[in-house]
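okkk here we go again. third time trying to get the fe (ii) ion bound version out, last two times i messed up the smiles copy paste (missing a bracket lol). double checked this time i swear
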Amino acid sequence: MTERLELYKCSVCSNVVEVTNEGVGVLVCCGQNMELLNENIADSSNAHYAIVENIDEITKNIRFNHVMTPEHHIEFIEVISNDGKYLKRKFLEEIEPAQLTFKCDCKEGFYVRLYCNRDGCWKTLV
Ligand SMILES: [Fe+2]
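finally!!
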């Protein structure tokens, strides 16, 4: 059984998939069950913590004090509304700054999630 927005990883080939429609089946890759990635909660002392700055009423900038090297980098950043209906994702190159500017007027609030190639999935509650 899967749930919408869950992330799964294949421990053989490193495929990462995100669920958009829930189902009763088990996700399989390379002949074995994929692993559900835990959402670790980042606090402000952690490099995976999202620093959110308000640019204007609806425009926000998110950045991370995280290294961006071929060996260790953030692969993507997601902004997800608390009701799960709105999602914005940015895929990052290994050498570009870990940041995202977006517009969001979601009244229900949002959280930020990222996937780090070395440390897995991290979530910042905003
Ligand atoms: Fe990391």
